[in-house]
Every structure is written in C-alpha cells, then in structure tokens.
C-alpha cells in the first residue's frame, strides 16, 4: 500500500483514467446499485478492509472461490511453499496429477479432467469438445445462465423457439451465435419442443444446475430429469456448468444433489472453476475417458494453455479441496448459510417486508417477492429498486453483498455464528428503513 492512503472515490476516479470503467470485470463497478465501488486493501477470514480502512463482512468471497474465507493459514502455507519452488514451468508437475485425482474422486461422473485458468476458458473448451465428440454444431443454453464470455455464449433468445439467438455483446457476429438456442430455465415444454424439432443436430445442452447468475434459482427435479432423458435419447451431451456450484453447494457439487433426487443421475460433462482454485486462476472441465480422449494431444479437438495447471494455483486449489473434505465441513457451512437466510426472512417479516430465500451448502439467494422465481424473467420482474436500497443500507453497516440483484451470495467456513447474527441484525435495521 502507498503511504498516502486514497479514498475509494479518489481511487475510482484514478482507476477510470487508465482502466475502462475503472474495473477489470464489469459488475465490480457498482453500475446496477450505484455509488462508489470499494477498493479492497486486504482481507482476512470473513472480512475485508477497503482503502479507507472500513471493515466489511464479505458475502461475495471473490464471487465464490473463498469457501474457507480469506487467508486460511494452511492454504497460505501451501501457496508460499509452491511459490518458492517456482511460479510456472510450462511442463507437467505431480501436483496437477494430484489435483486431477482429487477432483475425480469427488466427481464420480467423470474419469478425466483437463485444467485451465478461467471458467470462461473451461466453458468454451467444453463446448468445443461436445461439438467435436458429437460431430454436431448446435448448442442449447438457458436464459439467465452465464457460462463465461466466449462469443457463442453471449446470446439472448431469438423471437421464437425455432429461431436462434441474438448476440448480447457488440463484437459478436450474428453468424457466431446462429448455432446457439436460448430457452427458458425450468420450462419442460420448451426443451421438449426443441429436441422434437432439432434433436439430431444438438451437440450439447449447457446448464447451471443451481444457477447463481440470476440470483439463486434451482433447476427443478422434474425439469432436470426430463433434460437428462432427452439428451440421452437424442445423443446430445448434458453439460453441467458447475463453475459456481462446484464444491460449493455440496462436496459432490450440484450433480450430487440431483443424483440424490434422481437415481443414477449424472451429467456427461462438468465444468468447474472458483472453489477448485481457492482464489487463484484455475478452472477445469471433466468427462468420461472416451470423451476426454478426443482432446489434443490424443484426439482432434484442440485445446491448450501456457499457464494451465499452474503450480501455485494448483497448490492453492488442492489444499482448499482437501480442507473442505473434513468431517462436518459442509454440514456446518450449510447450517450457517441457512441460518443467515432464515434470519433474513424472519426479520423482513417482522418489518412487514415481503422476502423469500433459498440456499444450498454455502450459496444463497433472496428475493423481494412472495415465492421463489423459477426463471430469469421472474427474477428480474420486480424488486430491483428495493434491492438496490437494501444493498446500500447493508453496505453502510459494513455488510458486503453482491452489488446486483441478479447475483447469488456466498458464506464461507470463516463466518462465525456471531458474524451471521450481526448480519441478520443489520438486515433487520435495513428492512425497517426500506
Ligand atoms: N460459469 C459460471 C456458472 C460462472 O458463474 C462464471 C463466472 N462467474 C463463469 C462460468 C466464468 O468464469 P470466469 O469468470 O472464471 O471466466
């Protein structure tokens, strides 16, 4: 840190001169909620401190990765040791093998895994592999699910079910998204219709099984079951994007949650990120040996990365994955997260504010609505202004929630019962002022 501490506002002003919008990823700019982004100086456990020295209880945790909280001593030690041994080699290391073994042990649907550096890269590579494996071009995604910013995935629904999507970003040619079909989440009739009309051309259906990019919305069990049946019947791959839900909603990720409800359930391919890197740039995609052997150097689907399997990142991820396997870890995390959401619903009710909430493991969402939304349209239908006011009332009390209504929240193992109780008390205060 420089000796002359700058305010958040002064830093934001300075940042905007040299970085577009002052941020290196758009949601950090507080555009949805307004106000000045907090520039983080340091973090420890469930807290971070901004440039002005103000402490915040952090319910973002770097958008998911920090499941152990910040600066966990064992993770820190592993990272420091790895850094001393070298930052990057561009040659294989034992630790990559160990991390791959650990991921596969926890994800029985997959037999092999390839490590990459970001969720975007993993999702993009998974789609290329699904297309290469099936020899088909079309892909299906759902409105409100985010799978990174690869061109073919920056797309919104076309005017009708039979029509393909429109780019949601400038710079993406219409031709690039002409193979991407965007459907409504949890809508069984739409997915049945799509497979009935073009099932033989669909390479894969990509889905966030428990979506964290339209606040927190679960795919219903009947919807997931039907999706699985249709993919199998038509030879399309079911690709689970578990970048956010992976090792976060349960030790076995969201797929283990659906496998409990649907006997024998498994996706054909899984995409991971966030928690598997523990806060370092690391992501992965995984599938059966048959599918993964289509990748270079074995097969015709090209995929590569200078920093893939980075030795410092793998040390961070591996240690994180080992710690989350300790007895009782997810029970306690799930219980803390539930008590946060139960607390919100209770104190909102006391203040006469309509609120619903849901959570799984260490991931949560709440809505200023009387029932849990099932798709993007209903998430976005109401509550934006109320959320934005609530966000700032919480921020003013030192609680850092996602700065947009369409994002999920995260609790870490470092959040104590007292932290949760303090946050619920702050929420009670905020709800009374809404
Ligand atoms: N998939 C999902 C479900 C995500 O939540 C994200 C990021 N929030 C991504 C993919 C992209 O990951 P990254 O930001 O690491 O590229």
From TrEMBL:
Cofactor(s) required for function per UniProt: pyridoxal 5'-phosphate
Gene Ontology BP term (one): protoporphyrinogen IX biosynthetic process
Pathway this chain belongs to: Porphyrin-containing compound metabolism; protoporphyrin-IX biosynthesis; 5-aminolevulinate from L-glutamyl-tRNA(Glu): step 2/2
Catalytic activities: (S)-4-amino-5-oxopentanoate = 5-aminolevulinate
Keywords: Cytoplasm, Isomerase, Porphyrin biosynthesis, Pyridoxal phosphate
InterPro entries named among the record's database cross-references: 4pyrrol_synth_GluAld_NH2Trfase, Aminotrans_3, PyrdxlP-dep_Trfase, PyrdxlP-dep_Trfase_major, PyrdxlP-dep_Trfase_small
Top-level enzyme category: isomerase
GO terms under cellular component: cytoplasm
Homology family: Belongs to the class-III pyridoxal-phosphate-dependent aminotransferase family. HemL subfamily.
Cited NCBIfam families: hemL, PRK00062.1
Protein name: Glutamate-1-semialdehyde 2,1-aminomutase
Origin organism lineage: Bacteria, Pseudomonadati, Pseudomonadota, Betaproteobacteria, Burkholderiales
Gene: hemL
């Amino acid at each position: 840190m420089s000796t002359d501490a700058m305010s958040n506002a002064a830093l934001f002003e300075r940042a905007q001169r040299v970085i577009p919008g002052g941020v290196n990823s758009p949601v950090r700019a507080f555009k949805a909620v307004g106000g000045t982004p907090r520039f983080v100086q340091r973090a420890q456990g469930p807290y971070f401190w901004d440039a002005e020295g103000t402490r915040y209880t952090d319910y973002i945790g770097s958008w998911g990765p920090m499941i152990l909280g910040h600066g966990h001593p064992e993770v820190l030690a592993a990272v420091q040791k790895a850094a001393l041994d070298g930052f990057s080699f561009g040659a294989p290391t034992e630790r990559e093998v160990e991390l791959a073994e650990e991921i596969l042990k926890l994800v029985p649907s997959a037999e092999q895994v390839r490590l990459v550096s970001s969720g975007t890269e993993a999702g993009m590579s998974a789609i290329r592999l699904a297309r290469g494996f099936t020899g088909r071009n079309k892909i299906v995604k759902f409105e409100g699910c985010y799978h990174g910013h690869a061109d073919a995935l920056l797309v919104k629904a076309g005017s009708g079910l039979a029509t393909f999507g429109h780019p949601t970003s400038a710079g993406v040619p219409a031709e690039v998204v002409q193979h991407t079909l965007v459907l409504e989440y949890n809508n069984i009739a739409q997915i049945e219709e799509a497979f009935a009309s073009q099932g033989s051309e669909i390479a894969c259906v990509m889905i966030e099984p428990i979506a964290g990019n339209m606040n927190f919305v679960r795919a219903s069990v009947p919807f997931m079951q039907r999706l699985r049946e249709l993919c199998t019947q038509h030879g399309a791959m079911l690709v689970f994007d578990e970048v956010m839900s992976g090792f976060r909603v349960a030790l076995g990720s969201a797929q283990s949650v659906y496998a409990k409800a649907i006997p024998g359930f498994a996706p054909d391919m899984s995409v991971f990120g966030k928690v598997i890197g523990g806060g370092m740039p690391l992501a992965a995609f995984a599938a059966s040996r048959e599918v993964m052997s289509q990748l270079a150097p074995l097969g015709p689907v090209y995929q590569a990365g200078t920093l893939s399997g980075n030795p410092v990142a793998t040390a961070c991820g591996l240690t994180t994955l080992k710690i989350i396997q300790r007895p009782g870890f997810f029970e306690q995390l799930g219980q803390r997260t539930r008590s946060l959401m139960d607390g919100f619903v209770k104190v909102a009710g006391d203040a006469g504010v309509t609120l619903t909430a849901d959570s799984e493991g260490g991931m949560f969402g709440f809505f200023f609505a009387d029932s849990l939304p099932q798709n993007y349209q209903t998430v976005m239908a109401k509550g934006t202004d109320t959320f934005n006011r609530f966000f700032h009332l919480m921020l003013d009390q030192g609680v850092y929630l996602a700065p947009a209504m369409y994002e999920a929240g995260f609790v870490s193992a470092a959040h104590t019962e007292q932290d949760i109780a303090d946050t619920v008390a702050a929420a009670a205060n905020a709800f009374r002022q809404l």
